[in-house]
Amino acid sequence: MSHPLIKLIRYSRNYRFDISLATFYSLMNKFFDILPEVLIGVAVDVIVKRQDSMLAHLGIHDVKLQIIILGLFTGVTWILESTFQYLYSLKWCYLAQNLQHDMRIDAYSHIQNLELEFFENKATGNMMAIINDDINQLERFINDGVNQIIQIVGSTILISIIFFMISTQVALLSFLPIPLIIIGVFFFKNKLAPRYLKVRNAAGDLNSKLNTNLSGIATIKTYTTEKHELNAVSQLSQGYANANKHAIIMSAAVTPVIRMAVMCGFLAALIYGGILTINGHIQVASYSILIFLSQRLLWPLTYLAQVTDMYQRSMASINRVMGLLNSPINIVDGANQLATPCSGRVEFKAVDFTYHEREQLFDRLSFVIEPGETVAFVGSTGSGKSTIVKLLLRLYQHQAGQILIDNQEINTLTMDSFRSQIGVVSQETFLIDGSIADNISYGSFAASREQIIQVARLVEADQFISELPNGYECCIVEFATPYY
Ligand SMILES: Nc1ncnc2c1ncn2[C@@H]1O[C@H](COP(=O)(O)OP(=O)(O)OP(=O)(O)O)[C@@H](O)[C@H]1O
Ligand SMILES: [Mg+2]
After folding, report:
1. Structural domain containing residue 379
2. pLDDT of 376-410, one tens digit each?
3. Which of 122, 351, 385, 426 most suits a substitution to test ligand 1, by most atoms within 8 Å of the C-beta?
4. Are 282 and 273 within 8 A, CB to CB?
5. Among all ligands shown, which has an atom nearest to the Cα of 121?
6. Ligand nearest to the CA of 381
7. Cα-Cα end-to-end distance for the chain
8. Are residues 307 and 350 in the same domain?
9. Are residues 282 and 411 in the same domain?
10. From the CB of 355, is ligand 1 less than 6 Å away?
11. Are 133 and 318 in contact (CB under 8 A)?
12. CA gap 480, 484 in Å, rounded
């Protein structure tokens, strides 16, 4: 099993160039974000040293001109920072959208190809969670998380280099609080996790209570239990409020406490850097850069807990999505086409079949139905009548024997070629979202209105459909509502 991040990178290989470009934009944005702090040092240099400043050494001797040029340069820096911010936001956002779309469609397409047995072992809710929540989690991670990680790492490296170039001693002193900050944010994260869990649980309890009560409002009124239910909802609502307060007591403390550690780094740069400057070991300009940058170094670290949390969640999501994508498809298409139209000879030859973890249902079941013959299977409930049809459709795989259509074993045929020639009226009805006409013609999308009406007449449904408000265009969801 490779690391989920590697799986994600492998999955997104088509977007390699875009990822590199987005990373470049993120890094450039951070660079131009930090540059103005360095330019402040250059400004101080101009003011303090005037004709002897760095810019003067570059050939600009007029002090006013130095400041104007510096101003222009700073302006350009800000414009570039903004430009790259726009570019990276756009690029990561596009990437997130493209990848989540690819993944959702891949996952859905894979699910459609899985055999029915898979759906019985895994709750459908679980698959819904993967296609929705997990893929959305990945979308958020690529949208915000990746950029945050790149920028935190990038700015830490860049600022460290500047610090060490100016003064190793001050750099080391300012870096001392880093472990403290990291330990601090993770301490808070661990302490906060169970409190947030309680908040989510309380919200869930409240939600399900409200759901049950609103759908069961007729029962509540009939038994005059309004007061009782109001009380129950009030208690759950209070529970939610309390859970939140319990979490806020601690979450509100995170920034103030971490600020103390940032302060230590800042004070080190201020005091020790100041002493070194007074003694002439550091230039005044460099001193100002140190002071400004010490905060820029330490504050981003406070996001570390948030970012690692997002990272961990996303890795778990990748594992679930990839696990689904890699789940083997056990019923695969055969290579041959069944002729259209087929003559329709059906033969079961010593077929054995057992549902997953059930007792054997068919033991060497054999029968032949000749073309044009009408056959009815009669048997007690659960004797296996529907299963015969499901096996013929190859919704389940028989374990032994042969199922033949026109003398060809169905395992050797493409599913499409024989399923499209079998008409099934199921005992469990399932309606799709859409009009009555859509439901009648489902699977035969080219059917004309005349054909649809003709079929409806055949099953004596035409009259009542015509009496509905919009006739065949009547929306299934709409007209079902009053009955539920
Ligand atoms: N997906 C499944 N997984 C496990 N067992 C199943 C599954 N579908 C059906 N069975 C079991 O297989 C047996 C045959 O079911 P089947 O639906 O074929 O019966 P039937 O003859 O169509 O019954 P009915 O007259 O109620 O429609 C039953 O014992 C049923 O519980
Ligand atoms: Mg049945």
Report:
1. 346-419
2. 999 999 999 999 999 999 999 999 999 999 999 99
3. 385
4. yes
5. 1
6. 1
7. 47
8. no
9. no
10. yes
11. no
12. 7
